Amino acid sequence: MDANTNEKLSSSYAPFNAGEPNGKEMENCVELNLGSKRWTDIPCDERLQTFCHLPARTRFKIRGLPYRIGLDAEYSLNTDRLHGDFYTLVGYTSTWLYHDKTLGHWRLDLRTDKETWAITNSSDYPLGLRQWMINSTEFSGLSKLNIDVCDDQSEYNCNDGSCVPIIDRQHAFWCQLRTIRKMLN
């Protein structure tokens, strides 16, 4: 139960240990296993340290990656690792995105294969639609990739990396308006 909204959380809300939740009506609370960093459902009469809400982790998504090149499509911000003046983005399996200060561009690297990479010129975080040079055994060449933090269920992403509510049927209009405002400022 989320204490802020009083809504019941689904089992997909957080990563449960294998076979969990399994207590049905008998185990309606959870504990966090610090070793596995996964949840186990437990009876609510057990006395443990508690928390009421975990903030969602911002997910960066890369849209437009060529199929089967091995680079991750989703990333999280690694605030423990500063690379130059920027934080790195860490892929969920084997990729990281960082700013190469020496060469002045952003670079996507596959940690297990130094020959698979992508680069784009940008002095700031590379949000929005940008041209990337990609090198891999499956694909080499230019490709337009769009990086955003939009919620796929409720937001539409604009080419500048901004997000607009998906319920607003005029996506193109709002994206164009944002672009015009940025050009005028």
Which tags fit this structure?
3 domains, two-stranded antiparallel sheet, globular, eight-stranded antiparallel β-barrel, mainly beta, disordered N terminus
Describe this structure in words.
The protein is mainly beta. It has one helix at residues 171-184; strands spanning 29-33, 38-42, 59-63, 74-83, 86-91, 95-100, 105-110, 117-121, 128-135, 140-148, 155-157, 163-165. 8% of the residues lie in helices and 38% in strands. The radius of gyration is 20 Å and the shape is globular.
For the terminal residues, how far apart are their CA atoms?
A: 44 Å
- Counting H and I runs of at least 4 residues, what is the number of helices? 1
Number of strands: 12
Principal-axis shape equals globular
- Taking pLDDT < 50 over at least 5 consecutive residues as the criterion, the unreliable ranges are 1-13
Q: Which strand order does the major sheet show?
A: 3-4-5-6-7-8-9-10
What structural category characterises the helix and strand content?
mainly beta
Question: What is the string of helix and strand elements?
Answer: EEEEEEEEEEEEH
> What percent of residues are in strands?
35-45%
Largest sheet: 8 strands, antiparallel, barrel
Assign a percent range to the helix content: under 10%
